[in-house]
Amino acid sequence: MAEEKDILQEEDRVDENVAEKETETEETVSGEEISETAEEEQAGAEEEAGETPLKESRKEKKKREKADKKQDALKEKIEELEDRVKRQMAEFDNFRKRSEKEKTMMFETGAKSVIEKILPVVDNFERGLASVPEEQKADGFAQGMEMIYKQLMTELEKMEVKPIPAVGEEFNPDFHNAVMQVESEEYETGVIAQELQKGYTYRDGVVRHSMVAVVS
To answer: Which of 33, 85, 122, 212 has CA atoms 20 to 30 A from the CA of 148?
Structure first.
């Protein structure tokens, strides 16, 4: 009986050792599984951590490209507006120059018209003064006429109205109008020997051509 009891105790110890071994094996496997899961989770976290900056980098790149496109569009619009302003300024400058030129031409046309009407008055003054006898030139009336004539000519000269040189000058169709030919021992052929009506210029233009007689 004692032997049977010892045998049973020995079997119980063996079973306990087997149970302990199985428990250790299960714990080892469970620990390995937990370790593998932790490693997988860590790897996944590292992979996600690696993908997030890449995604952010792509977003930033797209954002920069969008901002660059917008800036280019704004720059193009600004250049277009600047070009339009420059054209308008050039057109306005041309319009101003045309207006000034037209204004000047209108003023000169009006001035020439007035001068043309005054010149016959000058002619009459000169004829009247030329007809005064030598002995009457000291009279008050004759001297008054002379003073008025000189004042008129001074004002015309201030307006840049000048008489055209004629007698003794070579005939120039731009300034002289030949109405007759004469013979002369004093002047050569083609030279003006006589002035029949005085001509005048206003600035750079002829208001009235001189009527002259040219040596044949």
So the answer is: 212
